[in-house]
Amino acid sequence: MLINNKSKRHHEAGFSLIEVMIAAVLVVVIAVMVSSFMSKGQKQAAQQATQDQSIKIRQSLADLLKRDLAYVVNPADVVIISLHEMTIKRPKLQPGNNRPDLTQTYQVRYRGVCTPIPATLQTPLSSFNFATLPVALQKRSSCTTTATLKCGAGTYPQVRIEPDAGANIPTYPGTPLPNLTMQSKAFHGSIGLLPCFQRTGNQIAVGLDAFMAKNLTSPSLDLMGERFFLVIGNVTDMIILQK
Hints:
Largest sheet: 4 strands, antiparallel
Distance between the termini: 88 Å
Shape: elongated
Structural class: alpha+beta
Number of helices: 2
Helix content: 25-40%
């Protein structure tokens, strides 16, 4: 009887050890699944945040162009210097309000430039080539296929808005769009913006290619293209068509 009790206790102890081992394996499996799910969620959130910022930048630029063209009535006041550069001569503002002063004007220049990538982002963006895009990205582009501005290795495209200095001039962004010096990681926002300006009569066609990084573990270049049209004239004649 004593032997049987020892055998029974030995069997019970062994069974408990197996249960512990199974539970440990399950815990590990669940932890891996949760970690994988969280990592995937973080990647998706980072990608969505980058896309949202790119959309916001493009919309801000469209709004600025629409504002500057709103009170231009003389087509000669809008000059397409090159595919990537345009100047607009428009009225200043009346002191104390936002109404245009038709007796005073200033000039603002919109232009695309190639700018050195900050040292903090050189490594994650080292494999990116803004000058030569894969066919898949070219199909989504509104500007790259005709672009003459080729940003080679170590540089990225951005838009600079340069108004004349002086009083009674509307507010413009104080930094270029986008500005990578404001980002610590490639996934914190847009990593490039290439503009193209074309004109037919009183209509201005603007192409904007917003570049982004995708895939956190192995970053690759992504692109969102957009094209819209602005008409020289007063506010009631202004149209914007987005594709």
